[in-house]
Each structure stands twice: as structure tokens, then as C-alpha cells.
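Before a colleague's protein record goes any further, I have to sign it off. I want your independent view on whether this chain really folds as the C-alpha cells say. The record follows directly below this note.
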Amino acid sequence: MFIRSVERDTTLDAFRKEVRAFCEKEMPAIVRQKQAKGQHLERHEYDSWLKRLGTMGWLTGKWPKEQGGLGWKPEQFMAFQEELGRAGAPPLLSFGPTMAGPVIYTFGRPDQKETYLENIRRNNTWWCQGYSEPGAGSDLAGLKTRADKDGDHYIVNGQKIWTSMAHWADMIFALVRTDQNAKKQEGISFLLIDMKTPGITVRPIIGITLGHHLNEVFFDNVRVPISNRIGEENKGWTYAKFLLANERVGNVDVAKVEASIEQIRHLIIETREDGKSLAEDPVFKRRLAELDVGLATVKALMADQLAAARQDGAPSLMGAAALKLRGTELQQAILQTGIDVLGRHGMVYQHEALNSGWNGEIIGPEESADVIYEHLYRRAATIYGGSSEVQKNIIAKGALGL
């Protein structure tokens, strides 16, 4: 068993070495194989890996020590992400450690912290996010899902949409309207809801990737204890904004971005036209250089936000917006470069190749299916977590007072 040596050995190199050794020894073989092929993981495969990280305290390493975290400095969290990416590990799921957890330890009651935080730290509970609705996406404050008091419970009715991983989730943190007559940003409360509660229906949404990670969630007279409300009634917008700042930082997985650039770099080197590698083409040389500069910029923005969160308890809204904007645009630029390299092969999407057990023949480079999947999936990156237009408005308001 590995020992938490982060506290006793403060050198970053030693920590990187520990993470590399852990990944080499502890990452399940099936997870390593699927990641190498870009194949989808099942929940139990993901769970096995995340629980291993949880035993080290690494899922929540950037949480404050007083909340059960390791109190990582920004450079330590960045090093952790980078080493996971270089080891080919799955990206970390942010719904518990990055979103629900900080809201609970910042605004929750002691009994709520005791009930939920340890299970998040060890990945014993899977969470999903109940924010967007059919008529309330970027205009989230227009949500209509309602929660009416009935004794010591709320009765919840309404619908959430684009709910990632709801079919895997044990819990959902949801914004609900508890005052039907208040202004849009007022009258909203923040509830923690058990997904096994009677009256909850989850329906899959099959997206452009032809995969299933999105869902609709319907609430039909769902009884939720009032004790599951975070903070004050009708003050949920405050907690929602706090969470969104964390979410926007979590939307940019630096390890995933770096791994994607390396994948595209390899693809460029291996692809030949007129007997020459595309790596010799001035156009692709320039594009790779631009992607590397973009990565350095995003890393700097990420470090700033982690430092702000460490000092102030949460990232700044304006800084998180800038990171989300630059990071998601970079993701799309990386994958568009990959599609351009694939050329005609990018017109054939063999999504079946991303499922375990597929034994067909790939048309084009072996990375084709994974690159096309990510390209299609990340078209939404500049929308989810708040569209780019919303982020620009936040930046303008914060920087220019507009």
C-alpha cells in the first residue's frame, strides 16, 4: 500500500515520481488498455480506478486539510493532473470532488458534511448535476422545476436536461424554485436528491457522438427532505454561482488537453503526403506551435485560479470565465487540427470501434474513431458550463464594469 508522502516530502519531483509509480502499479489493466484505444469505460471500470485514487486522498487533494483534503498547492495539483495524463489515466470526474463537495463543505451543515464528504473523497457516491432545463440553459435563472413544502419535505416537480452521467449517479445536486413569485435569481434553492427516490425517471439522450452520457431527468412528485437543502431557502443562486466558478475551472482538464495535443502531434508525424510527413509542412508546424502556446496560456490561467481558490475559498468568477473560454476554444482547435490531418478518413466515423470487443478494421489511422468522437463531443465545450458568450459578458462586466 502506498503512503501519503505529499505532506512529508514537499519536493514536486518526488510527488511526480510517486504518482507515476502509483499509476504504473494500480491502474487496472482493462482501464489502461481501453484508454490506449480511446474506448469507453463502464461504470465499474471507472469506479475501480477512482476508488484507488480515493484511498490516497488524491481525488480531493486540493480540498483544504480541515475539510479532509490534502491542502495541495496549485503547482501540486497541476503536477498531479499532468502525471495522470502522461500515464494515460481516465480524466477525473468533477461532479463530486469539484462541484458538490466544495459547496457542501463551504455552505453545508455539520451533519451534511459528515454524511456526504467522506463518500466523495473515496468515490463511494457518484453525483450528477441538475441545472439545465429545456427552457433554461445559458439563462439558467429561468429554471421552472419547483419544490413545494409539505411538512418536513419538499415535493419536487419538473425536468432537467443534458444531465451527464445521470444513469450512473447515486445523487443529484439540483436547483429548484421554492418561491414562484420571486424575481428570476431569487426564490431558487439548492437541493441534494437521492436518485433512487420514487418519482425520478432518467431517459437517455443519444448525442451526435452516437454514445450515451447525456440524459433527461424527470421529477414527478419527488419527496425530498428539507434537511437536504444546502444553506438558506431561496438563496440557492448564491451557491449556484459558487459552484459554476468551480465547474468552469473543472471544465478544463489540463491533462486531457495535453494528451490530446500529443495525440495530434503523433498523428501529424505519422501522416504522409507526397512521401513526406505532415510534420514537415509549414502549415501544420505553425498550428502545432499555436497549440503549444495555447496550452501554456491555459496552464498559467489554471494556476492563477487554483491560487485564487486556495486564498479566497473559490476561483474568481472573471478568472474562471477566462479559463473556461480559452480552455474550451483550445480543445476545439486541437481536435479540428486532428480532423484536418485525417482528411477524407475523417468522413468515416466508426463509433463501434470505441466499444470493448469490437474486432473490425479501422479505416484510416488507428486514432481515427477517438479523434472524431472527441471532435464531435467537444463541439459542446463552448456551450456547457455557460456558453462562450456568457463568459465574455462576465469578463466584460468584471474588467470593464459594463
About this structure: Strands lie at 127-130, 146-150, 153-160, 171-177, 188-194, 200-206, 212-225, 229-230, 272-273, 276-277. The two ends are 54 Å apart (CA to CA). The longest helix spans residues 282-312.
